[in-house]
Fold these 2 entries.
Entry 1:
Amino acid sequence: MSAPENKRRAFLAAVGAVAVAPGISLIAPSQAGTAASSAVRFGMLVDTTKCSPGCDACVKACAAENGLVEPIADLRQGSQWIRKIDLVDTATGRQHSLPMMCQHCAKPPCVDVCPTGASFKRADGIVLVDRHICIGCRYCMMACPYKARSFVHQPLTTQNPEVPRGLGCVEACTFCVQRTDRGLAPACADACPQGAMLFGDLNDPQSAIAKRLKEVATTQVRADLKLGTGVRYQGI
Amino acid sequence: MKNEFSRVEEKLFYGLAALGALVTAVGLGAALYMEHHGHVVTGMNNQIVWGLPHVFAIFLIVAASGVLNVASIGSVFGKAVYKPRAPLSGLLCIAMLAGGLAVIMLDLGRADRLVVAMTHFNPTSVFGWNVILYPGMFGIVAVYMWTLMERRMYPWSKPVSVAAFIWRLLLTTGTGSIFGFLVARQAYQSAVLAPMFIIMSFAWGLAVFMVVQKVMYGWNDLALHPDIRKRMKNLLAIFVAAVFYFVAVYHLTNFYFAKQVAFERFILVDGGIFPLLFWGGWLLAGTVLPLLLIFVPGLAAMRGSVTAASLLVIVGAFCQLYVFIIGGEAFPLEIFPGMTVSSSFFDGRIDHYAPSLPEFLLGLGGIGIAFTMTVVGVRVLRFLPKDDLAKLGAAGSLSD
């Protein structure tokens, strides 16, 4: 192979890395068949100053990615893995809009209370529900301070094969684990038109999210509970 | 005359057993309907995740623990008046525990995974502890009843009764702690809930016992000795007053914390059905009226006053649990203190829960199970409390 050809390939690879979704270059893909590593702590930074009140691109992307599309008569019984919350400071009138989902706590109350161990935290910090041993007691929903979990109230027919869901089980945001294990960012982060959701490895000082967290003031929601949330918010 | 009475009793037994079986069957049918269609056919949702079935189930489980108090007072604390009542107390404990657990299990999203619940154990989960505490209670009470009803086992009665006493305190601590350990919701996260549930169990259990005892005496043409009746009703009054004390402490503490005031206002003042059930159901009907019926001479002398007081305590218990469980969930989670919030997931909104018929029938089915087990139990074994009045009188046990 000639030297100019080598340079051309290197150039094409660099262009490719820039052209694909930003999330791809942020995290290393897991090796197939290997367990999640505790060296990694996945997390997300939401910049609420960029988040538009009327925009729900993240919510739509989550629904499409995870197959949350069944219509339900009573919306209170439907699954919402991510939702937009509009906030108004009662003292000052300042308004915010932000996406709320499972905060992937370091000390998740849902894991503590689950009688069977179906609620669990992966080594890389992603909090999941094992659908094989969830008995549908909903104790985790009582325990979650973020109202992040949904119970499947009706039979499902349109599941995404990569996202196991089923009647009578509890579910929540998985950080699109089917994507993160391939080195992709969660669907919501990719879909955000403002680039307000930054996903990555909190443990890697070189990651974009770790660098950003070092630079800007961020907040953990219900920080008083000291749950060590993996999701942080900027601007609230 | 004796034969005539037996025939009446015989007919009554089959009638009652059939009634219990029917209510149980309807409850099981409701559970099957919910299992088939999903919880979409209930009034429960992602905010109010535990509904009417849990009100029934927790009443039955808490009262089951408390009804054994009657036996404990006899065996552990040596009060002679309560000893003949111990077997019936044990039977009611097992029957109500079975009814309550059946409702909890049948309400699960995946009731078919009962084996999973038994084989996967998370030691940090209060529910997980209960998977050990509840079946353990069945075992201990069964052995306890054996020591009470089998002459050769009498010497073991005392140590087993002590074990049962400790076990049920643990069990009710576990039930109260299901809520006490929850940091997420305003209504819970309080250590006072564990002892509060224990004292609630004493009151509710004794109330159930008094009603069942009254009915059994009625069928057998017997009357409770006035001195025994007086002792038992006074004890009921003490328990009802103690529940009042704990509930008062719980709410007053909350009122003192600024972050809890909005929740307290909701439960006690402007929360619609919940203040109504709290003041009218629990306080007036379930606490004040029973105490009046027990202590005001004119009312206490009325026929059936103690039974009425006991029934009112049970009505109050259901009101209290409805307020505690449903009201506690209806109030929105305070995720962003100091902000007003709105979302497509009803953040910041007070939820309105309307229980559906299947939920109610499932809860009723739990009572059906407890009722049927009691009716069959008292039929096949000697559970009727029989007082040796001469012996009790000689020992000075009839009066305090």
Entry 2:
Amino acid sequence: MRFIIRDDPAAVGEYVGNYISRRINEFNPTPEKKFVLGLPTGSSPIPTYKHLIKLVKEGKLSFKNVITFNMDEYVGLPRDHPESYHTFMFTQFFSHIDIPPSQVNLLDGTVEDLIGECNAYEQKIKDAGGIDLFLAGIGEDGHVAFNEPGSSLVSRTRIKTLAYDTILANSRFFGNDLKKVPHMALTVGVATVLDAREVVVVVTGQRKSLALSKSIEEGINHLTTLSALQMHPWALIVADEDATAELRVKTVKYFKSIERVQDEVETMHRELKKKKVNGVNPNIIEQVPSME
Amino acid sequence: MPTANSLVCFTNCKLALEDGSIVQRDLWIDEEKGIIVDAQKTFFEDGRRPDTIIDVGGSIISPGLIDVQINGAYGFDFSLFPNEDAKAYDDGLRMIAERIVETGVTSLLPTIITQQKELYSKLLPLLGPAMHPNSATLLGWHAEGPFLQPEKRGAHLPGFLLKAPKGVATFEEVYGAEALSKPSVQLAKRGNITFPGVRLITAAPEIEGVLPAMEELVKRGVVYSIGHSSASSEIARKGVLAGARLITHLFNAMPQLHHRDPSIIGLLGAPPLIVADDVPLFSNDPAAIIEQFDGADPTLHGAEALSEAPSPSQSPPLSPTRPEDKPISSISARIGKRERTLDGQGVAKKLAPKKSYAKPFYGIIVDGCHSHPHSVRLAYTAHPEGCILITDAMPMLDPHLTDGLHEWRDGRRVVKEGVKLYIEGTNTLAGSVVTLDTCVRNFVQFTGCTLGQALKCATYNPAACLGIENHKGTLRPGADADLVLLDAAGNVKGTWVAGKKVWPVEK
């Protein structure tokens, strides 16, 4: 696991935005070979989306050949409800970039056959060739997507009852009326996220610091579902200083030293790859192995 | 390459919304259908996004301006019918509709001032709602007269003023029964216009026969405006109870504000709902609040715009109340069951459904001379939701007209000084020559309101008064894509009608 610390949420957004942009551009997606990106909602990824939008407007990045899969959606909330994740994704991201609507996938919580919807979603991901990079956030209780504490760590896309904590936290978006907050959601499973070839997690703010500590400083535990990330071969967490408040000094120092070395190695390999363009097989250095 | 779709996205813009706010947001329209679309629905449900993106560089996009009182422009007078030449008259209408868009106006209501009564039945049929290419929409007609108070006649000719001893029958005699009949669906479809057309009558409530006639005519979809009147406060209130939704050029051609009898102007100080005599005005008992007027004939609304979203409520053109008014809806919600409520003892008692009437809108000329800036601010402070900016412009209206001497009528000449027009050799004002976009900028200056709030007074408020706010004066999905592009100071940079750019004309 790689762990990057930046000063504030804006700097985190810029780092993650540049990181995703680099991944997509290095992948060099085409209509035949599209890049598949998993996306979250919530406040943490907003600076990242802002930065990606900026890159698109500057012509440095395009989503023309990118397929997206979103993590989750409420059940029973109309898709054009101001608090639906459809609305969030459209207003925060999709309306500002150049992605064709046909390449955008979100779970539909308004259908009659919810189980069928979930199974079809898993199949759709498979048909797209799996997810190349899954961007994620984290809940205050360490949940990833709507995989609340106690969720199976090998779970797949399914219907999920929201934890009381999450309902309370989300009630602020529903006029502080608990009855108006949907109590169910469709969500990708922990295993669906871990299946992605790469997972990038954004963690910002002091309120997330305990969850971050439990996710990376303790063992794998279904009460902190993000801790399952420890089993992923190619994971990256990017946090701001506030979110590190509960981490041990030793942890922070260690990961900061990794970042430096990682940068050096990545630069070295990129140079090497350039030299190899006319070589026998450029694919042998497709990806820099993690220093972890 | 497949051809580009007809969707257009305006980006890097600030939208002037119908609540008077200005928000940074993109706007999607369908150029072919000429309407505003629900962007999110288009994206997720139709799977489409605009191929054309217009970066407006941070400008403001407002619904196109609506002028409900304009007597003519660019030298053409709506009230004159020389040689009874219908073709020439229609050409004049088209000419104004085509040129007025440079002032940000995308809809106008040609206004006929008092004429000899024979003329109405000839002119009104020529003034149906109409849409011509690259032109502002002609909404219908505004008849200012002849049922006016002679002592408040202003520039109207006293010899042509009439009473209505036979009520509606007199009105039909003067305007023509056809012009006052209930609009048919055919009329609603005319010229791709999706509403039945606007018919606005300014009349003085104290003139014999006017109120009984108006009570009947509002049921047929006519909008009643109180004006050119010396009505007392009580008569003005009766005018509202008869269905008046508008006051014509506030402060002008009406009694001055007197604190003991504030007359027509005093309506601005009335409570939000004007109710019948037997109901206390400010009551805590919801039972005392009146049921909303429900006389609307749904066939009169015309076809809905090619709506992609369920249409929000729209005031029926003939209803004196505005159903979207918050006081009514919140009260209805509180009452729950319409006709039942509980008194203090928990006993259900029956309520007779009664009519309530929203405070009327008022048109106000914001050229700085027809109403003093302080008067404008006074009116706006008293009743911001009812404010409608009008030009009441004379045929001399032409933003390109230079200051100095100009030929007028009957060999008389006028002197133009900025927005003021004097009869030569006098200091008598010869009417207004202010453009509506200038009124918007003046209004910001006079009242200290935001540009968004001022635009609301020239867009959403007039549309709501006329009952066409699902189609005009709004950026709601499904509404006509009539747009005006403004800089931060409110100067018009471009105008679109039904999704087509009409000004400045691209070379």
